[in-house]
Amino acid sequence: MAFGGGFDPDNEVMSEINMTPLVDVMLVLLIIFIITVPVLTHSVKVDLPRVSNEKQEIKPQTITLTVKADGTVFWDDAPVDAATLELKLAEQAQKQPQPEVHIRGDKTAPYEHVLKTMAAVQQSGLLKLGFISEPAH
Questions:
Q1: Share of the chain above pLDDT 90, in %
Q2: Which of 63, 48, 68 is closest to 110 using CA atoms?
């Protein structure tokens, strides 16, 4: 017995460590490492492309549509009629990235005129639509 309980005639406790299982474990680990290291270090040579780390921000154009009280629509401070507005919006909808459309409605303008302008923007296929207002004082 390893610790020599009752079989040792001198009744002395054996204080040595049995090294055989430890050596067996170390040999198994050595064999595993010998087998796996060549698999881990094997690589395929690939010529990867080089890229710059600079962030490229393409800011979309902003279109401001102003609706006056009498129903007149202005495209960035230039008056446009309904047909020209639809043509310009369809042209802008084809761009990538699509521009943002901001609508400024006159406080005294009937909601119908603003709604028609919103419908024209939506029908053209533009996705970003916002409203411009002044804060209350």
A1: 45
A2: 68
